[in-house]
Amino acid sequence: MRAQIAAHTSWANTEDRAARTEKARKAALDRFEHEVDPDGKLTPAERAKRAEHARKAYFARLALKSAQSRRRRRSSATDDARPA
Fold first, then answer.
1. Residue 40: left (phi > 0), alpha (psi -120 to 50), or beta?
2. d(CA 5, CA 12)
3. Cβ distance 32 to 55 under 8 Å?
4. Residue 33, class by beta-carbon neighbours within 10 Å (0-12 exposed, 13-18 middle, 19+ buried)?
5. What is the pLDDT of residues 6-28, one digit of tens each?
6. Could you give phi then psi for residue 16, rounded to 5 degrees?
7. 78/62 Cα distance (integer angstroms)
8. What is the pTM of this model?
9. Which DSSP symbol is given to 38?
10. pLDDT digits (tens, 9 = 90+) for 36-60
11. Half-sphere exposure for 58 (CA within 13 Å, toward CB)
12. Alpha-carbon 63 to chain mean position
């Protein structure tokens, strides 16, 4: 709870959110670029295109897992509510 309060207070006092998160965003992009071009053989433009698709696939997989989890949870809750 204290950490949550500290985090909210810190973000409330942050004037430039983009600057604060710049390193993390760059690291995430670098990760996808390295994933699609580990040897650095692609042109920067092609690497960027492929990295963007890798990023979209990553977030689509997260969304799928989330939907599956919600479906299982909902199914489990319905099964528990049924009389035996």
1. left
2. 10
3. yes
4. buried
5. 999 999 999 999 999 999 999 99
6. -115, 90
7. 24
8. 0.72
9. T
10. 999 999 999 999 999 999 999 999 9
11. 13
12. 10
Which DSSP letter does residue 6 get? H
81: which 2 tokens?
Answer: 């509510």
Tokens of 45: 């433009």
Domain that holds residue 52: 2-81
Give the span between the Cα atoms of 44 and 1, in whole angstroms. Answer: 44
Q: How many domains does the chain have?
A: 1
- Two tokens at 77? 């809750």
Q: Among residues 62, 37, 64, 68, which one has the least CA distance to residue 51? A: 37
Task: Enumerate the H helices of the chain as residue ranges.
Answer: 2-12, 17-36, 44-81
First vs last C-alpha separation in the chain:
40
